[in-house]
Protein backbone atom coordinates (compact mmCIF):
# COMPACT_ATOMS: atom_id res chain seq x y z
CA UNK A 1 0.00 0.00 0.00
CA UNK A 2 1.16 3.52 -0.56
CA UNK A 3 -0.38 6.93 -0.11
CA UNK A 4 0.41 10.61 -0.29
CA UNK A 5 3.31 12.03 1.65
CA UNK A 6 2.55 14.52 4.39
CA UNK A 7 3.78 17.31 2.14
CA UNK A 8 1.09 16.47 -0.41
CA UNK A 9 -1.80 16.52 2.05
CA UNK A 10 -4.16 19.44 2.37
CA UNK A 11 -6.44 19.21 5.41
CA UNK A 12 -9.23 20.95 3.50
CA UNK A 13 -9.21 18.20 0.90
CA UNK A 14 -9.84 15.23 3.16
CA UNK A 15 -13.54 15.24 2.32
CA UNK A 16 -14.32 12.91 5.20
CA UNK A 17 -17.67 11.17 5.13
CA UNK A 18 -17.74 10.94 8.90
CA UNK A 19 -18.53 14.36 10.30
CA UNK A 20 -19.90 15.21 13.73
CA UNK A 21 -23.57 15.69 12.83
CA UNK A 22 -26.34 13.83 14.64
CA UNK A 23 -30.09 13.64 15.14
CA UNK A 24 -29.60 13.48 18.88
CA UNK A 25 -29.51 16.25 21.48
CA UNK A 26 -26.91 16.65 24.20
CA UNK A 27 -29.55 16.50 26.93
CA UNK A 28 -31.02 13.23 25.66
CA UNK A 29 -27.59 11.66 25.32
CA UNK A 30 -26.68 12.74 28.84
CA UNK A 31 -29.93 11.32 30.22
CA UNK A 32 -29.24 7.99 28.53
CA UNK A 33 -25.75 7.91 29.97
CA UNK A 34 -27.11 8.75 33.41
CA UNK A 35 -29.64 5.91 33.18
CA UNK A 36 -26.99 3.42 32.07
CA UNK A 37 -28.60 2.88 28.67
CA UNK A 38 -26.17 1.66 26.02
CA UNK A 39 -25.10 4.69 23.98
CA UNK A 40 -25.35 5.01 20.22
CA UNK A 41 -22.69 6.65 18.08
CA UNK A 42 -24.85 9.79 17.92
CA UNK A 43 -25.10 9.84 21.72
CA UNK A 44 -21.34 9.55 21.98
CA UNK A 45 -20.77 12.39 19.55
CA UNK A 46 -23.13 14.65 21.49
CA UNK A 47 -21.28 13.95 24.72
CA UNK A 48 -17.84 14.28 23.16
CA UNK A 49 -18.65 17.62 21.56
CA UNK A 50 -20.78 18.83 24.51
CA UNK A 51 -23.51 19.21 21.91
CA UNK A 52 -23.31 19.61 18.17
CA UNK A 53 -25.80 22.47 18.45
CA UNK A 54 -22.97 24.91 19.17
CA UNK A 55 -19.32 25.28 18.29
CA UNK A 56 -16.62 24.71 20.87
CA UNK A 57 -16.73 23.06 24.26
CA UNK A 58 -19.43 24.13 26.72
CA UNK A 59 -17.70 24.00 30.10
CA UNK A 60 -20.85 23.40 32.13
CA UNK A 61 -21.85 20.49 29.93
CA UNK A 62 -18.32 19.14 29.99
CA UNK A 63 -18.39 18.99 33.77
CA UNK A 64 -21.67 17.08 33.60
CA UNK A 65 -20.12 14.47 31.34
CA UNK A 66 -16.97 14.17 33.45
CA UNK A 67 -18.98 13.81 36.64
CA UNK A 68 -21.12 11.08 35.17
CA UNK A 69 -18.07 9.21 33.92
CA UNK A 70 -16.40 9.49 37.31
CA UNK A 71 -19.48 8.06 38.97
CA UNK A 72 -19.62 5.21 36.45
CA UNK A 73 -15.95 4.45 37.13
CA UNK A 74 -16.63 4.27 40.87
CA UNK A 75 -19.61 1.96 40.36
CA UNK A 76 -17.71 -0.29 38.04
CA UNK A 77 -14.22 -0.61 39.49
CA UNK A 78 -14.29 1.31 42.78
CA UNK A 79 -11.59 3.61 44.12
CA UNK A 80 -8.54 1.57 43.14
CA UNK A 81 -5.97 3.08 40.79
CA UNK A 82 -3.96 0.25 39.31
CA UNK A 83 -0.47 0.14 37.83
CA UNK A 84 1.97 -2.55 36.78
CA UNK A 85 5.70 -3.07 37.31
CA UNK A 86 6.90 -3.28 33.74
CA UNK A 87 9.88 -2.84 31.47
CA UNK A 88 9.96 -1.89 27.82
CA UNK A 89 12.17 -3.92 25.58
CA UNK A 90 11.69 -2.84 22.01
CA UNK A 91 13.65 -4.97 19.58
CA UNK A 92 14.24 -2.71 16.61
CA UNK A 93 13.56 0.75 15.26
CA UNK A 94 13.95 -0.33 11.64
CA UNK A 95 10.73 0.28 9.73
CA UNK A 96 9.67 1.20 6.22
CA UNK A 97 5.97 1.69 6.84
CA UNK A 98 6.14 5.46 6.86
CA UNK A 99 3.22 6.35 9.13
CA UNK A 100 2.84 10.11 9.09
CA UNK A 101 2.26 10.42 12.83
CA UNK A 102 5.35 8.46 13.77
CA UNK A 103 8.44 10.20 15.04
CA UNK A 104 10.07 7.10 16.31
CA UNK A 105 11.14 4.97 13.42
CA UNK A 106 14.20 4.74 11.26
CA UNK A 107 14.18 3.86 7.61
CA UNK A 108 15.25 0.26 7.37
CA UNK A 109 17.91 0.68 4.67
CA UNK A 110 20.03 2.58 7.21
CA UNK A 111 20.40 -0.69 9.10
CA UNK A 112 21.92 -2.55 6.18
CA UNK A 113 25.50 -3.68 6.65
CA UNK A 114 26.82 -1.69 3.70
CA UNK A 115 24.97 1.52 4.58
CA UNK A 116 27.32 4.46 4.69
CA UNK A 117 26.40 6.80 7.52
CA UNK A 118 25.23 6.93 11.12
CA UNK A 119 21.77 6.59 12.55
CA UNK A 120 20.30 6.62 16.03
CA UNK A 121 18.31 3.44 15.69
CA UNK A 122 18.98 0.00 17.10
CA UNK A 123 18.28 -3.66 16.59
CA UNK A 124 18.74 -6.20 19.35
CA UNK A 125 19.60 -9.83 18.93
CA UNK A 126 17.52 -12.32 20.94
CA UNK A 127 20.43 -12.70 23.36
CA UNK A 128 20.50 -8.94 23.95
CA UNK A 129 16.74 -8.90 24.53
CA UNK A 130 17.10 -11.69 27.05
CA UNK A 131 19.77 -9.78 28.96
CA UNK A 132 17.53 -6.72 29.24
CA UNK A 133 14.56 -8.74 30.42
CA UNK A 134 16.52 -10.89 32.83
CA UNK A 135 17.97 -7.81 34.51
CA UNK A 136 14.51 -6.28 34.85
CA UNK A 137 12.98 -9.49 36.17
CA UNK A 138 15.78 -9.65 38.75
CA UNK A 139 14.69 -6.21 39.87
CA UNK A 140 11.07 -7.35 40.26
CA UNK A 141 9.10 -6.46 37.13
CA UNK A 142 6.12 -8.63 36.28
CA UNK A 143 5.57 -7.50 32.69
CA UNK A 144 7.70 -7.04 29.59
CA UNK A 145 6.23 -4.89 26.86
CA UNK A 146 7.86 -5.21 23.50
CA UNK A 147 6.72 -3.35 20.40
CA UNK A 148 9.00 -2.89 17.42
CA UNK A 149 9.36 -1.48 13.97
CA UNK A 150 8.62 -3.78 11.05
CA UNK A 151 12.18 -4.79 10.25
CA UNK A 152 12.33 -6.28 6.73
CA UNK A 153 14.44 -9.21 7.98
CA UNK A 154 11.94 -10.15 10.67
CA UNK A 155 10.12 -13.41 10.00
CA UNK A 156 8.00 -15.58 12.27
CA UNK A 157 10.16 -18.69 11.96
CA UNK A 158 12.86 -20.23 9.77
CA UNK A 159 10.09 -21.69 7.64
CA UNK A 160 8.71 -18.18 7.16
CA UNK A 161 12.15 -17.00 6.03
CA UNK A 162 12.15 -19.69 3.35
CA UNK A 163 8.69 -18.71 2.13
CA UNK A 164 9.64 -15.03 1.99
CA UNK A 165 12.90 -15.77 0.17
CA UNK A 166 10.89 -17.72 -2.39
CA UNK A 167 8.98 -14.68 -3.66
CA UNK A 168 10.07 -13.30 -7.02
CA UNK A 169 11.05 -9.92 -5.65
CA UNK A 170 10.89 -10.27 -1.85
CA UNK A 171 11.78 -6.64 -1.09
CA UNK A 172 9.07 -5.28 -3.33
CA UNK A 173 6.45 -8.00 -2.96
CA UNK A 174 6.59 -8.80 0.75
CA UNK A 175 8.87 -6.18 2.35
CA UNK A 176 11.56 -8.79 2.98
CA UNK A 177 15.32 -8.70 2.90
CA UNK A 178 17.38 -11.55 4.37
CA UNK A 179 19.07 -11.05 7.75
CA UNK A 180 22.53 -11.28 6.19
CA UNK A 181 21.91 -7.91 4.55
CA UNK A 182 21.80 -6.19 7.94
CA UNK A 183 24.43 -5.22 10.43
CA UNK A 184 22.43 -6.92 13.20
CA UNK A 185 20.10 -9.88 12.75
CA UNK A 186 16.97 -9.52 14.91
CA UNK A 187 16.39 -13.29 14.76
CA UNK A 188 12.87 -14.57 14.24
CA UNK A 189 9.83 -13.40 16.14
CA UNK A 190 9.69 -16.80 17.80
CA UNK A 191 13.31 -16.51 18.89
CA UNK A 192 12.66 -13.07 20.34
CA UNK A 193 9.59 -14.33 22.24
CA UNK A 194 11.53 -17.24 23.67
CA UNK A 195 14.37 -14.94 24.65
CA UNK A 196 12.12 -12.46 26.46
CA UNK A 197 10.07 -15.10 28.20
CA UNK A 198 12.18 -15.18 31.35
CA UNK A 199 10.74 -17.24 34.20
CA UNK A 200 7.04 -16.44 34.52
CA UNK A 201 7.28 -12.81 33.48
CA UNK A 202 4.24 -11.71 31.48
CA UNK A 203 5.20 -11.04 27.87
CA UNK A 204 3.01 -8.41 26.23
CA UNK A 205 3.94 -8.07 22.58
CA UNK A 206 3.00 -8.45 18.91
CA UNK A 207 0.52 -5.78 17.90
CA UNK A 208 -1.87 -6.54 15.03
CA UNK A 209 0.55 -4.78 12.68
CA UNK A 210 3.45 -6.92 13.87
CA UNK A 211 1.30 -10.03 13.56
CA UNK A 212 0.57 -9.02 9.98
CA UNK A 213 4.32 -8.68 9.38
CA UNK A 214 4.80 -12.13 10.95
CA UNK A 215 2.47 -13.71 8.39
CA UNK A 216 3.17 -11.61 5.31
CA UNK A 217 3.59 -13.55 2.11
CA UNK A 218 1.83 -16.64 3.53
CA UNK A 219 -1.72 -17.90 3.87
CA UNK A 220 -1.38 -18.41 7.62
CA UNK A 221 -4.23 -17.14 9.75
CA UNK A 222 -3.72 -14.66 12.58
CA UNK A 223 -4.78 -17.38 14.97
CA UNK A 224 -2.03 -19.70 13.74
CA UNK A 225 0.54 -16.93 14.03
CA UNK A 226 -0.51 -16.01 17.56
CA UNK A 227 -0.62 -19.67 18.60
CA UNK A 228 2.95 -20.09 17.41
CA UNK A 229 3.97 -16.99 19.34
CA UNK A 230 2.07 -18.12 22.44
CA UNK A 231 3.91 -21.45 22.32
CA UNK A 232 7.14 -19.44 22.36
CA UNK A 233 6.09 -17.49 25.47
CA UNK A 234 3.78 -14.68 24.38
CA UNK A 235 1.06 -13.99 27.00
CA UNK A 236 -0.97 -11.08 25.61
CA UNK A 237 -1.04 -8.70 22.67
CA UNK A 238 -1.13 -4.89 22.70
CA UNK A 239 -3.94 -3.38 20.65
CA UNK A 240 -1.77 -0.55 19.40
CA UNK A 241 -1.64 0.20 15.67
CA UNK A 242 -5.37 0.82 15.98
CA UNK A 243 -4.91 4.58 15.59
CA UNK A 244 -8.42 5.42 14.37
CA UNK A 245 -10.39 2.40 13.19
CA UNK A 246 -11.98 4.16 10.24
CA UNK A 247 -10.30 3.61 6.90
CA UNK A 248 -10.74 7.13 5.57
CA UNK A 249 -8.53 8.32 8.45
CA UNK A 250 -6.04 5.47 8.12
CA UNK A 251 -5.70 6.27 4.42
CA UNK A 252 -4.41 9.69 5.44
CA UNK A 253 -2.18 9.00 8.44
CA UNK A 254 -0.97 5.43 7.94
CA UNK A 255 -1.70 4.22 4.40
CA UNK A 256 1.01 1.56 4.69
CA UNK A 257 -0.68 -0.17 7.59
CA UNK A 258 -3.33 -2.86 7.73
CA UNK A 259 -6.86 -1.52 7.42
CA UNK A 260 -9.60 -1.53 10.04
CA UNK A 261 -10.84 -5.00 9.10
CA UNK A 262 -7.28 -6.33 9.22
CA UNK A 263 -6.73 -4.91 12.71
CA UNK A 264 -9.95 -6.45 13.96
CA UNK A 265 -9.13 -9.83 12.37
CA UNK A 266 -5.77 -9.84 14.08
CA UNK A 267 -7.35 -9.14 17.47
CA UNK A 268 -9.85 -11.94 16.89
CA UNK A 269 -6.97 -14.24 16.00
CA UNK A 270 -5.10 -13.33 19.18
CA UNK A 271 -8.15 -14.01 21.35
CA UNK A 272 -8.84 -17.26 19.50
CA UNK A 273 -5.27 -18.26 20.30
CA UNK A 274 -6.07 -17.81 23.98
CA UNK A 275 -4.40 -14.42 24.51
CA UNK A 276 -5.74 -11.36 26.26
CA UNK A 277 -5.60 -8.16 24.24
CA UNK A 278 -5.79 -4.46 24.92
CA UNK A 279 -7.40 -1.73 22.85
CA UNK A 280 -6.18 1.76 22.02
CA UNK A 281 -7.12 4.89 20.13
CA UNK A 282 -4.72 7.54 18.91
CA UNK A 283 -6.67 10.76 18.57
CA UNK A 284 -6.08 14.47 18.15
CA UNK A 285 -4.70 14.60 14.60
CA UNK A 286 -6.86 14.76 11.45
CA UNK A 287 -9.90 12.85 12.67
CA UNK A 288 -13.30 14.25 13.68
CA UNK A 289 -15.32 13.47 16.80
CA UNK A 290 -17.45 11.17 14.67
CA UNK A 291 -14.38 9.09 13.85
CA UNK A 292 -13.53 8.83 17.54
CA UNK A 293 -16.94 7.52 18.47
CA UNK A 294 -17.17 5.14 15.52
CA UNK A 295 -13.83 3.80 16.72
CA UNK A 296 -15.25 3.28 20.23
CA UNK A 297 -18.21 1.46 18.71
CA UNK A 298 -15.86 -0.90 16.86
CA UNK A 299 -14.00 -1.66 20.07
CA UNK A 300 -17.26 -2.26 21.90
CA UNK A 301 -18.53 -4.56 19.14
CA UNK A 302 -15.28 -6.48 19.18
CA UNK A 303 -15.50 -6.90 22.92
CA UNK A 304 -19.10 -8.14 22.65
CA UNK A 305 -17.80 -10.69 20.18
CA UNK A 306 -14.55 -11.77 21.84
CA UNK A 307 -14.60 -10.76 25.51
CA UNK A 308 -10.81 -10.63 25.37
CA UNK A 309 -10.13 -6.91 25.79
CA UNK A 310 -8.72 -6.09 29.22
CA UNK A 311 -8.46 -2.32 28.90
CA UNK A 312 -8.90 0.71 26.72
CA UNK A 313 -5.92 3.00 26.31
CA UNK A 314 -6.51 6.49 24.88
CA UNK A 315 -3.36 7.86 23.27
CA UNK A 316 -3.41 11.58 22.72
CA UNK A 317 -1.45 12.41 19.59
CA UNK A 318 1.93 13.96 20.32
CA UNK A 319 2.48 16.09 17.28
CA UNK A 320 6.00 17.47 17.66
CA UNK A 321 8.56 16.02 15.28
CA UNK A 322 6.00 14.15 13.22
CA UNK A 323 5.57 14.51 9.44
CA UNK A 324 1.93 15.53 9.96
CA UNK A 325 3.02 18.52 12.01
CA UNK A 326 6.18 19.40 10.16
CA UNK A 327 4.25 19.69 6.89
CA UNK A 328 1.44 21.71 8.39
CA UNK A 329 -1.23 19.03 8.03
CA UNK A 330 -2.00 19.43 11.72
CA UNK A 331 -1.08 22.38 13.89
CA UNK A 332 -1.18 20.64 17.25
CA UNK A 333 -2.77 17.84 19.22
CA UNK A 334 -5.89 17.54 21.33
CA UNK A 335 -6.77 20.21 23.89
CA UNK A 336 -7.13 19.49 27.60
CA UNK A 337 -10.91 19.59 27.18
CA UNK A 338 -10.73 17.04 24.40
CA UNK A 339 -8.47 14.74 26.42
CA UNK A 340 -10.77 14.82 29.43
CA UNK A 341 -13.89 14.29 27.36
CA UNK A 342 -12.35 11.42 25.40
CA UNK A 343 -11.60 9.53 28.60
CA UNK A 344 -15.03 10.29 30.02
CA UNK A 345 -16.93 9.25 26.90
CA UNK A 346 -14.82 6.10 26.60
CA UNK A 347 -15.83 5.20 30.16
CA UNK A 348 -19.51 5.81 29.38
CA UNK A 349 -19.56 4.28 25.91
CA UNK A 350 -17.47 1.16 26.55
CA UNK A 351 -19.89 -0.51 28.92
CA UNK A 352 -18.14 -3.85 28.41
CA UNK A 353 -14.51 -2.87 29.06
CA UNK A 354 -13.69 -2.50 32.76
CA UNK A 355 -10.46 -0.57 32.62
CA UNK A 356 -9.71 2.81 31.10
CA UNK A 357 -6.09 3.88 31.26
CA UNK A 358 -4.57 7.29 31.64
CA UNK A 359 -0.96 8.09 30.87
CA UNK A 360 1.57 10.25 32.69
CA UNK A 361 3.79 9.89 29.61
CA UNK A 362 1.22 11.46 27.33
CA UNK A 363 -0.45 13.92 29.67
CA UNK A 364 2.17 14.71 32.31
CA UNK A 365 1.51 14.09 35.99
CA UNK A 366 -0.90 16.91 36.73
CA UNK A 367 -3.26 16.29 33.88
CA UNK A 368 -3.03 12.52 34.25
CA UNK A 369 -4.11 12.87 37.87
CA UNK A 370 -7.04 15.02 36.76
CA UNK A 371 -8.14 12.34 34.30
CA UNK A 372 -8.43 9.88 37.17
CA UNK A 373 -11.58 11.85 38.04
CA UNK A 374 -12.85 11.75 34.43
CA UNK A 375 -13.40 8.00 34.23
CA UNK A 376 -9.89 6.51 34.21
CA UNK A 377 -8.85 3.89 36.75
CA UNK A 378 -5.54 2.57 35.47
CA UNK A 379 -2.28 4.50 35.59
CA UNK A 380 -0.14 2.36 33.23
CA UNK A 381 3.25 1.11 34.40
CA UNK A 382 6.59 1.94 35.88
CA UNK A 383 8.32 1.66 32.48
CA UNK A 384 11.61 0.61 33.92
CA UNK A 385 13.84 1.28 30.97
CA UNK A 386 16.77 -0.55 29.60
CA UNK A 387 18.97 2.42 30.39
CA UNK A 388 18.19 1.92 34.03
CA UNK A 389 18.79 -1.79 34.03
CA UNK A 390 22.06 -1.34 32.19
CA UNK A 391 23.10 1.65 34.26
CA UNK A 392 24.25 3.18 31.01
CA UNK A 393 23.89 6.74 32.09
CA UNK A 394 20.63 7.29 30.26
CA UNK A 395 17.79 9.48 31.38
CA UNK A 396 15.43 8.07 33.96
CA UNK A 397 12.74 10.33 32.63
CA UNK A 398 10.36 7.58 31.67
CA UNK A 399 10.33 5.79 34.97
CA UNK A 400 7.83 5.99 37.81
CA UNK A 401 8.67 4.20 41.03
CA UNK A 402 6.08 2.58 43.26
CA UNK A 403 6.76 5.37 45.76
CA UNK A 404 5.90 7.92 43.05
CA UNK A 405 2.71 6.05 42.32
CA UNK A 406 1.65 5.79 45.93
CA UNK A 407 2.27 9.49 46.45
CA UNK A 408 0.40 10.53 43.31
CA UNK A 409 -2.57 8.22 43.76
CA UNK A 410 -3.11 9.00 47.43
CA UNK A 411 -2.82 12.74 46.71
CA UNK A 412 -6.13 12.51 44.85
CA UNK A 413 -7.78 10.39 47.52
CA UNK A 414 -7.63 7.09 45.69
CA UNK A 415 -6.22 3.68 46.54
CA UNK A 416 -2.90 2.54 44.98
CA UNK A 417 -3.06 -1.04 43.72
CA UNK A 418 -0.37 -3.09 42.01
CA UNK A 419 -1.81 -5.26 39.26
CA UNK A 420 -0.78 -8.02 36.92
CA UNK A 421 -1.00 -7.26 33.21
CA UNK A 422 -4.33 -9.07 32.93
CA UNK A 423 -5.79 -7.41 36.06
CA UNK A 424 -6.57 -10.85 37.49
CA UNK A 425 -4.12 -10.42 40.36
CA UNK A 426 -4.06 -7.23 42.36
CA UNK A 427 -2.47 -6.06 45.59
CA UNK A 428 -3.63 -3.07 47.56
CA UNK A 429 -0.63 -1.07 48.73
CA UNK A 430 -0.40 0.33 52.24
CA UNK A 431 0.88 3.92 51.88
CA UNK A 432 2.40 3.80 55.38
CA UNK A 433 4.58 0.83 54.54
CA UNK A 434 7.33 2.64 52.58
CA UNK A 435 9.50 2.17 50.62
CA UNK A 436 7.23 0.46 48.16
CA UNK A 437 8.15 -2.15 45.59
CA UNK A 438 6.45 -4.73 43.40
CA UNK A 439 5.43 -8.17 44.59
CA UNK A 440 3.75 -9.76 41.57
CA UNK A 441 6.78 -10.45 39.37
CA UNK A 442 8.44 -13.88 39.38
CA UNK A 443 11.36 -12.51 41.41
CA UNK A 444 9.63 -9.62 43.15
CA UNK A 445 9.74 -9.42 46.94
CA UNK A 446 8.56 -5.90 47.65
CA UNK A 447 11.99 -4.33 47.17
CA UNK A 448 11.80 -1.05 45.19
CA UNK A 449 12.78 -1.41 41.52
CA UNK A 450 15.68 0.97 42.08
CA UNK A 451 18.00 0.95 45.06
CA UNK A 452 18.12 3.99 47.34
CA UNK A 453 21.34 5.27 45.71
CA UNK A 454 19.78 4.93 42.27
CA UNK A 455 16.63 6.68 43.42
CA UNK A 456 18.72 9.58 44.70
CA UNK A 457 20.56 9.77 41.39
CA UNK A 458 17.27 9.72 39.55
CA UNK A 459 16.05 12.88 41.25
CA UNK A 460 18.86 14.72 39.54
CA UNK A 461 17.91 13.30 36.19
CA UNK A 462 14.22 14.11 36.35
CA UNK A 463 14.71 17.29 34.40
CA UNK A 464 14.73 15.07 31.31
CA UNK A 465 11.20 13.91 31.87
CA UNK A 466 9.48 16.49 29.78
CA UNK A 467 10.96 15.28 26.56
CA UNK A 468 9.77 11.75 26.58
CA UNK A 469 6.52 12.01 24.69
CA UNK A 470 6.36 10.37 21.34
CA UNK A 471 3.76 9.65 18.75
CA UNK A 472 1.78 6.47 18.85
CA UNK A 473 4.50 4.36 17.41
CA UNK A 474 4.20 0.65 17.27
CA UNK A 475 7.25 0.40 19.36
CA UNK A 476 7.16 3.27 21.74
CA UNK A 477 3.71 3.21 23.10
CA UNK A 478 4.31 0.53 25.50
CA UNK A 479 1.71 1.98 27.70
CA UNK A 480 1.21 -1.35 29.25
CA UNK A 481 -0.11 -0.54 26.71
CA UNK A 482 0.63 0.48 26.23
S1 LIG B 1 3.97 3.60 13.70
FE1 LIG B 1 4.96 1.60 13.69
S2 LIG B 1 4.58 0.78 11.61
FE2 LIG B 1 4.24 3.01 11.54
S3 LIG B 1 6.23 3.87 10.89
FE3 LIG B 1 6.16 3.95 13.16
S4 LIG B 1 7.19 2.05 13.80
FE4 LIG B 1 6.63 1.79 11.62
Structural commentary:
This protein is an alpha/beta fold and 482 residues long. It has a single domain (6-91, 137-149, 201-467), classed as Alpha-Beta Barrel (TIM Barrel), CATH 3.20.20.70. Helix content is 38%, strand content 10%. A four-stranded mixed sheet has the order 9-1-10-11. The protein has a four-stranded parallel sheet with strand order 5-6-7-8, with helices on one face. Helix 4 links the parallel strand 2 and strand 3 (143-146). The chain is globular, with a radius of gyration of 22 Å. Mean pLDDT is 90; it is low at 388-396 and 460-482. Residues 95, 97-99, 102, 105, 149-150, 209, 254, 473-475 line the site of iron/sulfur cluster.
How are the secondary structure elements laid out?
Layout: H1 26-35, H2 41-49, H3 59-77, E1 80-84, E2 86-88, H4 126-139, E3 143-146, H5 158-165, H6 170-174, H7 189-196, E4 202-205, H8 208-213, H9 222-231, E5 236-237, H10 247-253, H11 260-272, E6 276-283, H12 289-306, E7 309-316, H13 323-326, H14 336-349, E8 355-356, H15 360-363, H16 365-371, E9 378-381, H17 386-390, H18 402-411, E10 415-419, E11 426-428, H19 452-461
Parallel strand pairs: 1-9, 1-10, 2-3, 3-4, 5-6, 6-7, 7-8
Antiparallel strand pairs: 10-11
The structure holds iron/sulfur cluster.
Amino acid sequence: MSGPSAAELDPDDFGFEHVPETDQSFENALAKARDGVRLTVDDGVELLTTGTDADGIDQRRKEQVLELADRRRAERVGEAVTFVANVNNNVTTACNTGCLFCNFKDTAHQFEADHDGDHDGFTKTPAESRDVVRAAVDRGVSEVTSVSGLHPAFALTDEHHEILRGHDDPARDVNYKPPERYAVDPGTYVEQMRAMSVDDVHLHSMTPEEAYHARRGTDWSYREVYETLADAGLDSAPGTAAEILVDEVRDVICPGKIDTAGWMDAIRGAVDAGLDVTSTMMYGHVETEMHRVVHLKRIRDLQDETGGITEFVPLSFVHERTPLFEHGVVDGGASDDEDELLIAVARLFLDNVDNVQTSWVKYGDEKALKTLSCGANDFMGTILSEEITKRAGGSFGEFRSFDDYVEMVTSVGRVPVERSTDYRTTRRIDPDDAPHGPTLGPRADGTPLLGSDERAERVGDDTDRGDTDRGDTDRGDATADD
